[in-house]
C-alpha cells in the first residue's frame, strides 16, 4: 500500500497535493439513496474511483481504488473513527459495538466465538434441518415470490441461532411479543428505524417507530434471557445467546453484562437477516440468468456427497469441498453486493497518493466501485464465478469488500457463507428454477430483488 501521511493539526500538506474531484451537490443524498448503483457508476465514469459528495450531509468521499479503500478501512484509532449518523447510534443503543470505540476490540473478540469456528460447526445440524424442512413448503411446481420465500426461511434459521428462541406458538406464551408473526413485524420496524430520514422520536416517523420497536425487542430479550438463565445446563455452542450466557456465568464481572447480551442479540440479527436473505435470493437470480453453471454445480454436489453420508445434513467437511458453489456465491457478492461499508470520519487530515483527505470528512469504501474497476476484475460486468477459482489468490482483499474490512470487518462473514452454501446445496439437489425477466432491485439500505419479483420453481427427484 502507498504510505498514508497523517498530518498534525497545524501541518500543511505537501505542495502539489490535490483534493478529490467533483463538487458536492445538494441532491447527492437523494440521488445515492434512490439508486446507489447508478450514483456510483455515473460518478466513476466521470471522475474516477475517488470523488467528493455531500451524501448524508457534510463532505463525504467515496473511495473505490484498492489503496484508498485500504486507507479508509484501516484508520481506526489512528486517523478515523466510525461516522454513523446520530439516529443510527441511537438505534444501536449504548451497548453496541460502536458507541464505545475504546471497548470495541474487547467486545468484538468476546463475541467472535459465537459466530465462527466451532460454534458455526455446532450450528450446522440446525441450519440444515430448518432449511430442508422449510423448502418442503415450496410448491412442487409453480411460482414463488423470490425474496419473501427466501427471507421466510432465513428468519427461521437465524432467529433461533442468534436470539436463542424457539419459533413455535407455545414458546411465545408469557413473552412480551405474542407470536413469530409479531416478532417478524417488530424486527422489520426496528430495522427500518435505522434508515428513517426524520430524526424525531414520534410514532409518526420511521425512526420513532424504530425506537419503539427496539424497546419492545429489548423487553422481549430480557424475558427470553430470564427463561434461559433458569436452565441449569447451558450448552455454549447451541446458539449465540447461550455462548454469551455461559461466558457470563463463568465470569460475572467480565465483558457480558445483561445489557450487552440483550443488545448484541439485536445487533447481530439486525446485521445479518436481510443481508443473508438478499445474498441467497440474488444468488438464485444470478444462476437463473446464467444457467450454464448448473451442470458444473450439480456435478460438484454429486462429487461432494459421494461418501454416502446423510445428504440432508451437510457437514463442514462436505461444504469445504464445494469450491465452485462458493465461487458462485462470491461472484454474486461481487456483482450484487448487498451493502456498502459503514462511514468512517477522519479524525486527522491525511494525504494518500498526493490526494488530501481533510479532518472531519467522511469516507465510504464502496464495493459498488471497487467491484467494477477493470484493474480489479477483468470484464467486471460479466458474471464469471471462475475468477474466484483460478485467480482467487490474485484478488486483493481491498478490491473485494462485500464484508468490509479492517477493524470493523464483518463479524458474521463465516456464518453468512455457511448459511448461503447450505441453502444453495439443498436447492441445487432438489430444485430447478428459472427466471423469465430481469428483476428490479431495492437499492437502499440493502440491495435485494424487489418483493414482487417471481420465479418458476420445480422439484426434482434426486436425493
Ligand atoms: C451476506 C451477509 C452479510 C454481508 C454482506 C455483511 C456485510 C457487512 C459489512 C459491509 C460490514 C461493514 C464492515 C465495515 O464497515 O468495514 C459488516 C459489519 C458487521 N457485520 Fe456483517 N454482513 C453479513 C452478515 C453478517 C452476519 C451473519 C452477522 C452476524 C450474525 C454480521 C455481523 C456484523 C457485525 C457485528 C458488523 C460490525 C463489525 C464491527 O464494527 O466491528 N454480518 N457486515
CATH topology: Cytochrome p450
How confident overall, as mean pLDDT?
94
Q: What integer value in Å does the Rg equal?
A: 23 Å
Number of strands: 13
- Residues in helices, as a percent range: 40-55%
Give me the side-by-side strand order of the main sheet: 2-3-9-6-4
CATH evolutionary superfamily: Cytochrome P450
Domains counted in the coordinates: how many? Answer: 1
Helical element count? 18
Shape: globular
CATH architecture: Orthogonal Bundle
Decide which structural class fits the backbone: alpha+beta
- How would you describe the oligomerization state of the chains in this entry? single chain
Which regions are unreliable across 5 or more consecutive residues at pLDDT < 50?
Answer: none
Beginning-to-end CA distance, first to last residue: 49 Å
How many strands, what sense, and barrel or not for the largest sheet?
5 strands, mixed
The CATH top-level class label: Mainly Alpha
Strand composition percent = 5-15%
What compounds are bound to the protein? protoporphyrin IX containing FE
